[in-house]
UniProtKB/TrEMBL annotation:
Keywords: Hydrolase. Signal peptide: none annotated. The lineage of its organism: Bacteria, Bacillati, Actinomycetota, Actinomycetes, Kitasatosporales. This is Histidine phosphatase family protein. SUPFAM superfamilies: Phosphoglycerate mutase-like. The keyword Hydrolase applies. It comes from the Bacteria. InterPro entries: His_Pase_superF_clade-1 (IPR013078), His_PPase_superfam (IPR029033), Mito_Ser/Thr_phosphatase (IPR051021). The keyword Lipid metabolism does not apply. GO terms for molecular function: hydrolase activity.
Length: 195
């Protein structure tokens, strides 16, 4: 039975203009080194500069893999709840029916393309954004759409999901930062105490 191995990676740390920082470049290099021992077929990336640059760095460690853009991986809100949880209400202020429809269209395209088995055994890296990682994790776990909220991941953290015909997705890793030294972990999160 063919398995689709999906390695989700949030892009490296970026500046306020969306460009990869020196830290983000180091993070991307380290996750690329971690993935180098795997039979990666392709590195898909969001069209945004921080993901494009991260994917390019990761790709230097995967010389047999194509590095290609996938518009479905672009950063966007994947779901607008009808009634936002109180802590998230300010975030969704101003979102209406049009934004909710666009979110559903984009998130449906993301899952239709990547959250399913493939015809042959594949190993694919998806360099994307925190919300898209959260959406695919939520989908793999069969959780309600609103549960993407609060599923965050660090820059270049590794999440691995396997898809096979006839069975539910298998979550192997979530937000794993074992390839990063302590000073490069937890970027992309708010302030707080971290292990």
């Amino acid at each position: 039975m063919a398995t689709r191995h999906v390695y989700l990676v949030r892009h490296g740390a970026a500046d306020p203009f969306g460009e990869l920082t020196d830290v983000g470049q180091q993070q991307s290099d380290l996750v690329g080194q971690r993935l180098a021992g795997l039979p990666i077929d392709v590195v898909w990336h969001s069209p945004l500069p921080r993901a494009v640059r991260s994917a390019g760095i990761i790709g230097t460690h995967l010389p047999k893999a194509d590095v290609l853009e996938a518009p479905e991986l672009i950063d966007h809100v994947p779901h607008v709840p009808e009634q936002a949880p109180p802590a998230w209400a300010p975030f969704f202020d101003g979102y209406g029916a049009e934004e909710a429809e666009e979110a559903e269209r984009r998130s449906s395209a993301l899952t239709a393309r990547f959250a399913r088995p493939a015809a042959t055994e594949t190993h694919e890296v998806l360099v994307t954004h925190a919300y898209q990682v959260a959406w695919l994790v939520r989908d793999a776990l069969g959780a309600p759409p609103v549960r993407w909220l609060g599923l965050n991941c660090g820059n270049t953290a590794l999440t691995v999901i396997e898809y096979r015909d006839g069975s539910e997705p298998t979550m192997l890793l979530y937000n794993d930062m074992g390839h990063l030294p302590a000073d490069l972990r937890w970027t992309g999160f708010g302030a707080g105490v971290r292990p």
